[in-house]
Every structure is written in C-alpha cells, then in structure tokens.
Specification:
single chain; 336 residues; alpha/beta; Helicase, Ruva Protein, domain 3; Phosphatidylinositol Transfer Protein Sec14p; 2 domains; 5 strands; 8% strand; globular
Length: 336
C-alpha cells in the first residue's frame, strides 16, 4: 500500500472521531474493522494530505448515506433474466485468488456490450460487486490467509476492442469516477491482456496523462499473459481468456459453470443468492422497492474528463488512419 506515517493516521482518526451519525455508522460499513488500512487508502489517494483525505472520506460517506449504498446488497436486479442480460453484457467475474490471497477479478473490456439493460442497472450491478467484494470476499480471504487483505487484482481482457466502445464512454467514466472517489486504492495491480493494436495506440497516448501512482499499477502483458500471471497465481485461478493464446473472453468459450463471467458461475450464483437473502431479510422488516437503482454520481474530475476525451480522439484518429468503415458518427452515449 505504500508508506503512510503513523502521525497522519492519528490525525485522520482524530478527525473521523468527530463525525456524527449516520456517517459514523456508514463508516463502520466501509472500514469493516480495518481502520488503519482504510485511512491508508484514502491518504494514499490524496498524496498523504490529511485534510484532503478527510474531505474525500466524508464526501464518500455522504454519498453512501444519500444513495443508501449500505443497503444496496438488499436490492436485487429482477427478474433473473434481466440480471442474466446484465451479466452477459457486463463481463466481470471472480476467477480465483493470487498466491498471496488477493482476489483476482476478470473483466472482459473488449466484449462487454452494455446493451441488455439501462444505464442505471449497470451502475447498480457494479456497485453491488464492489460491496460484495468488500463485505464478503475480502473478509473471507483475510480470515483464510490470516492477514488483512483489503485489495484485489484485476485482469482486463481487451479481446474484441473496437471503435464502438466509444458509445460507452459515459457509462465507463461514471463507473470509474465512482471507484476513484468512493473505493480508492482497492486494486493492487491491473493486468492488460490480449491487447489489440488499437489499444496499444491509445495506451501510448493516455499513459503519460495518468498519475505516477496509477501508471505503476498497470502492466500490459504480451498475448494472453498466461506465463506472467502464473508467477503470481495458480493455473486454477487464471481467467479463462488467459489459459491459452487466442482463447479470448467470449462468454461462449466455455460452459457456464467454468466461465466466471456467466451467471451460472459459482461466484455469481453466490453473489445473487446473497443479494436475494438480504432482500428477504429487509422485506421482512420493511418492504423495499425493486427496480433500477439510481445513484447520484459526482462530475468526473478534470483529469478523468481529459483522459476520456483523449481516448475518443485517438480512436477517431485510428479509424480515419485505417479507413475503417465503423464510423463514429451518430454513436449514442448510453444513459438517460
């Protein structure tokens, strides 16, 4: 996590001791008993500036309270077929754990279409996976490995990445902003695999725009990245698109039980069962309204907006330079 001074931790804790309910209650849900690690994450996200880290955390807690995030795991996306559509078009799953016990999340960036549900369902699903990771997956890993495990690894598959990805810039920027402001420093390393030329072109331009802290987290691996990833995880934990060259991240590449993107995979089955059980418990106390979950999202930081515009510009240049028929004209940004 990097070095954070004990003095900064003490100052941060003194400030947080003054917050009132319901922020204090929400903060308990955030830190899950790992106070030092939580303070460290927010301090790292704000370059060890205690005042800025404190503001960031208080803003996060206000966001959680105002949007009822602490109860989002009791709000299933129903019916099941709608949720299956979300899973088939927002490719993410837990493939296993690293040798150090960090959860390995696989993300099919290139083949995620985000075209089976509304904007808000995808945001809701993303936050639910974040909350399930923080409240179930990480505590379970900490108990199993006998040490605090508060971060994860992400393997991003770029198979199938094309110009039409620009239609999802608003959604992806929203999700990224939510993560940056409310779940900072939860990812230890991002591994990029199966990167096509179009990604490599954009990465060369975007990389210098990123903060050094972020750049150090991103590793672009050759091909499917299997050999490099096997140095930090066992074969059983490899995402299916890393098992062999050209395997890709298609949700049809393996049967549902073996594909961590699929609703039939044990991770998603456990997640969905957990959400339904929490929903039944909440319903027994007070009936809750089902439906898409609207979350207020702060405007993206200037840096993030600049990066999004740079990506769009580079995609345009790539398309024009290669004479691709996949025109960017008329592409609609998802959302309301």
């Amino acid at each position: 996590m990097g070095i954070v001074s004990q003095e900064a931790i003490k100052q941060f804790q003194a400030l947080m001791d003054r917050v009132d309910e319901p922020l204090k209650r929400s903060f308990q849900n955030v830190h899950q008993g790992y106070l030092v690690e939580t303070f460290g994450r927010f301090l790292k996200a704000r370059d060890s500036n205690v005042a800025k880290a404190h503001k960031m955390l208080v803003d996060c807690l206000n966001w959680r309270v105002q949007n009822d995030i602490d109860n989002i795991l009791a709000k299933p996306i129903v019916p099941t077929e709608l949720y299956r559509g979300v899973r088939d078009s927002q490719l993410i799953g837990l493939s296993g754990y690293s040798k150090e016990g960090l959860p390995v999340f696989a993300i099919g960036v290139g083949l995620s279409t985000f075209d089976k549900a509304s904007f808000h369902y995808y945001v809701q699903s993303h936050i639910q996976i974040n909350e399930y990771r923080d409240h179930v997956i990480l505590p379970s890993a900490s108990k199993k490995y006998g040490k605090p495990i508060t971060t994860c690894i992400k393997v991003l598959d770029m198979t199938g990445l094309k110009l039409s990805a620009l239609s999802q810039i608003k959604l992806l920027t929203t999700i990224s902003t939510i993560d940056d402001l409310n779940y900072p420093e939860k990812t230890n390393t991002y591994y990029i695999v199966n990167a096509p030329y179009i990604f490599s072109t954009c990465w060369k331009v975007v990389k210098p725009l990123l903060q050094e802290r972020t750049r150090k987290k991103v590793q672009v691996l050759s091909g499917c990245g299997r050999d490099e990833l096997l140095e930090i995880m066992d074969y059983a934990s490899l995402p299916h698109f890393c098992e062999r060259e050209g395997s890709g991240s298609s949700q049809n590449s393996q049967n549902g039980a073996d594909n961590c993107f699929s609703l039939d995979h044990h991770f998603h089955q456990q997640l969905y069962t957990h959400i339904r059980q929490q929903s039944l418990m909440k319903d027994s106390v007070q009936p809750i309204r089902h439906g898409s979950f609207h979350v207020d999202v702060p405007e993206a930081a200037a840096e993030r907006t600049r990066i999004a515009k740079t990506i769009e510009s580079e995609f345009n240049k790539f398309g024009n330079r290669n004479g691709l028929s996949e025109s960017l004209d008329g592409l609609k940004i998802n959302g309301d």
